[in-house]
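Troubleshooting entry. The earlier prediction with tryptophanyl-5'AMP gave an output that would not parse, so I re-checked the input for stray whitespace and re-submitted. Clean input:
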Amino acid sequence: MRVLSGIQPTGRFHWGNYFGAIRQYIELQHAEQAYYFIANLHALTTVRDPNVLAQLTLDAAIDLLALGLDPDKAVLFCQSDVPEVSELAWILMTGTPMGLLERCHAYKDKKAKGLPAHAGLFTYPVLMAADILIYDSDTVPVGEDQIQHIEVARDIAQSFNHHFGETFVLPKAKILDASAKVPGTDGEKMSKSYNNTLELFDEAKAQRKKIMRITTDSRPVEQPKAPESDHLFLLYSLFASDEERESMAALYRRGGFGYGDVKKALADVAEKYFAEPRARRAELAAHPERIHEILATGAERARRKAREVLNRAQQACGVCS
Ligand code: TYM
């Protein structure tokens, strides 16, 4: 089994990134081969300050390592260090119907809001297809919002295989039911673009403040509440043990408690949960040269596989001499 996934350095990672995706990366790194990359070329569609993008890319690598990604087990690299991907993206683009990309939600949403869209946003799913197909990936751990993109990668691979002969492995998304769509502080999907995120490594005091501002309804303290439909409860559940979750659910059903107490419990449990990675992060951040080394070694390993698959695709469509 070959596992692959990518994450954009468009901001500091949040709980949605961790519980939807990063936690899976770490669990799956014991699989036969796991490739994880920082999608800086995708991020360039939104981050337009070069210093910010470079810093966020380095931070992303540090965060992943601090959270438990082991560079001796998984291949960790930066998307732009494998130029073969951009070359494959072009080859794939020549056979990708406009209609397929017009249906993709990132572009469609922007258009619906009347906002100007760049070609990079429109063709974003093709670069993502190249990211996946170039490593013969069969399993792609992601959150729910990426399922459509993986379907597009499958469609593109299938139509290439149909036209030029068997070339690409067909990938499958892997999602965790319990955290495929982590809610943000307002109950919508947690997302940088909705401004409702809780970051993994925020300073503890600032994080507590954000947690205390999570929106809740105005039902009186004594009224029983259904835990399943409450985003504060869902956030608490991400961190809690089965026992803790059950006793919190019982409290909800019984009523007679304030949301403030749940928020305090959430802040405590989250702080404890990320305490170790936070300490590891501080050590890693003190040696950026080691992080660059890890990324360079990862890129070398990734390129070996990428060259092989790009070559196969070039042979198949007749663009090699
Ligand atoms: P990105 O950077 O937006 O998100 C990284 C990962 O985090 C997951 N995620 C969530 N999961 C659950 N609940 C949430 N609220 C939540 N928010 C984010 C995402 O589903 C994703 O798995 N296009 C990709 C990056 C990419 C990629 C790839 C992924 C580029 N090439 C190839 C897989 C394979 C993206 O924008 O993810």
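This one parsed fine. The pocket of tryptophanyl-5'AMP is lined by residues 5-8, 16-17, 20-21, 39, 42, 128, 131-132, 140, 142-143, 145-146, 149, 179-182, 189-191 (CB under 6 Å).
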